[in-house]
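Bumping with the actual sequence this time:
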Amino acid sequence: MTAKVQTLVDKLVCENLKALVPYESARRLFAASDNTQETQLPVWLNANESPFANEYSIDSDLLNRYPDCQPSAVIKPYAAYAGVNNKQLLVSRGADEGIELLIRAFCTPGKDRILICPPTYGMYAISAETCNVGVDVALLKPDFSLDIEAIKTFKDKVNIVFICSPNNPTGTSVAPEQIEQVLTHFADSALVVVDEAYIEFDATSSFSTKLAEYPNLVILRTLSKAFALAGIRCGFTLANEAIIHTLLKVIAPYPMPQPVAQIAEQALSAKGLALMTLQVETISDEKAKLKQALSNFSGIELVGDDKANFILFRSAQKQALMDFLVSHKMFIRDQSKQRNLANCLRITVGNVEQNQHLLSLIKQFFASQSNTGSPA
């Protein structure tokens, strides 16, 4: 039966999917290690999740009804928070769905292309390839700034330019003048999507107030990071009304489950926003301590910047260190497959206990390497 099913799948699957490999999400990479029956529970510092888990209440009275496509109880407070009007906002199942909707709405399969600037978030390319949309590349410069001259060569060749700022996994924010140059250059030919998933960790760099100035500007946001709500999958697309109206043509009829909308509404209340701000400050304080501690290891070189909730570093003993941490149920993220990030690992900032445990393990690792004669 399995062989027959595989034969049928091979016959019917879209041509552009045959060579694709599923996106290696942080959770999927170590799914086999997530065994809560074991005495030693895993520590997850590999997905840029918040270390906080906040309490929310759910009213079940409306669970028998289909939810609103765009619940006003979520749209209104987030629009106010982001500084846009209600018609400039779309809520979706995470910012990942926003990426897919933009590609589906503004790129013709088998014809159009997008532009990405690696090293960067992998879902831009995955979503495009899934939709049979081409992917062009303008590598970041060695300091992880945009290569503006390289980007400009793609005018009239791409429909969407994706810029992640703060960038995952480098932790760097793109200079505002660089984003403005890209917006101006592609003003009449492409959308410029600025992914601000980590913007609460670098709030003064947001472009959310510039929609009127740049009609081709699109901004992606999420509740997954600073709001500590990765588990509910709630993201936002900010853009001018005509773009939002187009996205509403391709979004699912009921994208926002009722419990998700209720939790998002509570998170966006005055109390929820105050809590988020406090937790961002706490994470930022822990990040500074963790960064300082990591810089004291001779076998570690800090890479990029710290404008998000993670730290990127390079180590010549990357694989041995990674294996050691995994063996102790400490999971961080290997970024060495990314362009220009050889031997790089990314650590999500956890709580005090998690960070101290991580540092203790790293210290043990380098001590063991010194004892065996390996360079630390």
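The tokens above came from a reply further down the thread. The first helix runs from residue 2 to 12.
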